[in-house]
Amino acid sequence: MTQASNSKRIDGEALAGQRLARVAGQVATLVDAHALTPGLAVVLVGSDPASQIYVRNKHRQTVAAGMHSYLHQLPDTTSQAQLLALIAELNADPCVHGILVQLPLPARISPAAVLAAIDPDKDVDGFHEVNIGRLWRGDDGPVPCTPMACRLLLHHVLGENLSGLEAVVLGRSNIVGKPLANLLLREDCTVTLAHSKTRDLPALCARADILVAAVGRPEMVTAEWVKPGATVIDVGINRIHDDAATKPRLVGDVAYDDVSRVAAAITPVPGGVGPMTIACLLDNTVAAACRQHGLTVPDADQTQAPTDDARRHYCA
Length: 316
Ligand SMILES: Nc1nc(=O)c2c([nH]1)NC[C@@H]1CN(c3ccc(C(=O)N[C@@H](CCC(=O)O)C(=O)O)cc3)C=[N+]21
Hints:
Blueprint: E1 8-9, H1 12-34, E2 39-45, H2 49-64, E3 68-74, H3 80-92, E4 98-101, H4 111-117, H5 129-137, H6 145-158, E5 166-170, H7 177-186, E6 190-194, H8 201-205, E7 210-213, E8 231-234, E9 238-240, E10 249-251, H9 256-260, E11 265-266, H10 273-292, H11 308-315
Parallel strand pairs: 1-11, 2-3, 2-4, 5-6, 5-7, 7-8, 8-11
Antiparallel strand pairs: 9-10
Helix pairs in contact: 1-10, 1-11, 2-10, 6-7, 6-10
C-alpha cells in the first residue's frame, strides 16, 4: 500500500522563520534610526477556540519581532456599536499602525460594516473595500496575508517567473480565493477560480501546474485530481475530532500522503501556509507604519542581521 513519496515538502515554518528574522531586522532599523516601533492591534470578539490560537500566535510573533502588540479580547456579548467604538479609538491612536479584526465575527455583527470602519491605511488584512479596489487595479496597498503567503511559497518552489502556468484556485472566498486569483493573474498565470458549482472538478484540477485548495473540506483533493509534477498549496485547516477525549487533529483540504505520490511539491498542514500567513501580517504592519510616517521600508539586506540568539527568540 505505502508508496514512497516523490514530492518535496514545502517547509512553511522554516520560511516563515526567515521572514520573521527579516522583519525583526527592519523593526530594529526603524527603532534605531527613526524611534518608530510599529504597533499592531488585534481584536477578537468571542471565545472561538481556533481564533484564540491564531490570535495568540499573532501576538507572540509580533512581540518577538520587536513590535508593540495590542490585544483586545472582547466578550461574546459585544455589540456592533461597541466594536465600532473600539475601532474608532484604534484608528485615532498614533501607536497603532495596523488593525486586524479576527474573522469570523459573531452573527449579530456585520463584517462588512466593521471592515469598512477600519482606516484603510491601517488595514493590514487588506480587506477594506478601498484596498480591494487598489489590489484589483494593481495599485500599491496591503495585500491579504494568506494569498501573499501562497504566492511566496510558490515563488520559493518555482522561482520568480510563473508566467504562462495554469493555476486552479479552489474556493472563491474574499479572504483567500478571490485575492489569490488576482495575485496569480498579475504574474501572468492562466487562472481558473473553481467552486462548489464547477463541473467535473477533478478533471479541471488535473490540468493545473499550480493547484491551491482553500475550501475547508478535509482531504477533498486526492491524487487523481493532481497532474504529475504539479505544485500543490493547501490552505485548508480542518480540525478532526476522532473522539471526545483526544485533542482534535489538523488536516488540510488535500490528502497529503496520497497527493505526495504525484505532486512535485506540496505544503503540509500544519506547518505550511499558516505560519507564512503570520509572517506576511508582520510585513504588512511594518509597511503600514512606514507609510504612515512617510518612510520607505528599510532594505532587508541592509538591516542588521539578527544574532543566532535573537533568531532563536524570534522563531520560538
Ligand atoms: N481578520 C483576519 N485575518 C486573518 O488573517 C485571519 C482571520 N481573520 N481569521 C482566520 C484566518 C486563519 N488564519 C490563520 C493564521 C495562522 C494560522 C497558523 O499559524 N496555523 C498553524 C497551526 C495553528 C493551529 O494549531 O491551528 C499551521 O498551519 O501550522 C492558521 C490560520 C488567519 N486568518
